[in-house]
Design a protein that fits this description.
mainly alpha; three-stranded parallel beta sheet; 4 helices
Length: 156
C-alpha cells in the first residue's frame, strides 16, 4: 500500500494518474502545474501555510507552487507577518531546459549556427523566437488576462 505518492513527471501524467492514486488511498503531493490553480486542491508551502495541508482530503491531492514561487514565499512570509506586504514585483529567468529535450536541442543548434556565423538563418521550432543569446518574456500559454499561466501561478 502506498501512503504518499509524489508526482513530478509533467502535468499530463499528474492529470491522468494522480486521481487514481488518491482514490486508492494515497496522499498525492503534486509538483507539476496541473493542480496549482484548482480551488479544491490546497496549494501548500509548509513553512508558510501548514494549516492548509488538512485540505488534502478534498481531493486527496496537495499541490505545491513552482520553484521560484516556493523560494519567494518562504522569504516573504516573515516579512509579511511584520509589515503586511501589499505588493511584490517579480522577475524570474528560467532555463531553456524547462522546455525539455527539444528546447535544449534548439539552443545547441542555434549556438552552433552562431559560431558558424549563420544564426540569422535559424528557424525557431520549440520557441516562438530565436533562443540563442536571447531572453524571451514568455513562459507557458497566455491566459485571458494577458498574463502567462506561469506568471499567474505566482499570484495564487
Amino acid at each position: 500500500d502506498v501512503e504518499i505518492a509524489f508526482f513530478s513527471a509533467g502535468g499530463d501524467i499528474s492529470a491522468h494518474y494522480a486521481p487514481f492514486a488518491a482514490e486508492a488511498g494515497a496522499v498525492v503531493i503534486d509538483n507539476t502545474s496541473h493542480f496549482r490553480m484548482d480551488p479544491d486542491v490546497p496549494l501548500v508551502v509548509p513553512e508558510c501555510n501548514p494549516g492548509d495541508i488538512d485540505q488534502w482530503q478534498n481531493r486527496g491531492i496537495i499541490a505545491n507552487p513552482n520553484f521560484p514561487t516556493l523560494q519567494m514565499v518562504q522569504v516573504l512570509k516573515p516579512l509579511d507577518d511584520l509589515f503586511n506586504i501589499t505588493r511584490v514585483d517579480v522577475a524570474t529567468y528560467q532555463a531553456v531546459s524547462g522546455a525539455g529535450k527539444s528546447g535544449m536541442e534548439e539552443l545547441v543548434n542555434q549556438m552552433q549556427d552562431f559560431f558558424a556565423f549563420k544564426l540569422d538563418q535559424c528557424e525557431p521550432k520549440t520557441f516562438a523566437h530565436q533562443i540563442a543569446l536571447n531572453v524571451i518574456p514568455h513562459i507557458d500559454v497566455f491566459m485571458e488576462n494577458d498574463y502567462t499561466k506561469e506568471a499567474v501561478s505566482y499570484t495564487h
